[in-house]
Amino acid sequence: VGNSSVLACPPKPNINMLTWKISPKVGGPCNLGYRADTNTTDRTNCSDSMNWKFRPDLGPALEIQQVGIAQEGNYICEVVTPEGNFHRTYHLTVLVPPRLSLYCDDHGHPVCEAAAGKPPAQVSWLLETNSSLEEESHDNRTVTVLSRLTACNTNVTGTTCMVFHPAGNWSESIAC
Questions:
Q1: Going by DSSP bridges, is the β-strand pair 40-44/30-35 parallel, antiparallel, or unpaired?
Q2: Contact between 37 and 16 (Cβ < 8 Å)
Q3: Where does the protein end up (predicted)?
Q4: Does 31 lie in the same domain as 82?
Q5: How far apart are CA 74 and CA 94, in angstroms?
Q6: Average predicted confidence (pLDDT) for the chain
Q7: Of these four, 22, 75, 143, 149, which has the most CB atoms within 10 Å of its CB?
């Protein structure tokens, strides 16, 4: 999320026409088209964050600026040449790293929260097993995972929460 992404079409010589057909999970479809004979481009229902990216190594690729969850979905590039039609399909999935917070609740129990991640983060405790887990789904398709230790090993001066997510892994320690 927040980065730019470039999706390349099949590199072919003598392109007559090229079309990006975009079907996001949220909102309606969008199309970007290019005709070589008139050297014109056309766009239908596409946001300003989606544009052609012309580079010698990529050919007419698609650039998505500041990718967000709304851009998740299927992206199909169709290249028309005298040799035939060629397709490349991308399934864009957007990762949202969770915000980690670790604190002590009113009863002195450590609480580890991985807020607003996509997909949901996995939360565990180092050297501790007695914990409860809660998940809260949000309207923007992110999930907050909250883990609360219900009993602590008294031989340890600090407790470590570990958060695992495709966007990265984090750990933090606290003594309650």
A1: antiparallel
A2: yes
A3: Membrane
A4: yes
A5: 12
A6: 90
A7: 22
Domain that holds residue 161: 99-174
Per-residue pLDDT for 155 more than 60?
no
Whether the per-residue pLDDT at 101 is higher than 70: the answer is: yes
Are residues 118 and 74 part of one domain? no
Mean pLDDT calculated for residue range 91-107? 94
Q: What is the pLDDT of residue 154?
A: 54
d(CA 113, CA 148): 9
Token pair 């099949």 in the structure block, residue: 10
User: Does 31 share its domain with 58?
Assistant: yes
Looking at the fold, whether 78 and 15 belong to one and the same domain comes out as: yes
130 in the same domain as 78: no
Interacting residues of 138 by C-beta distance below 8 A, sequence separation 6+: 116, 144
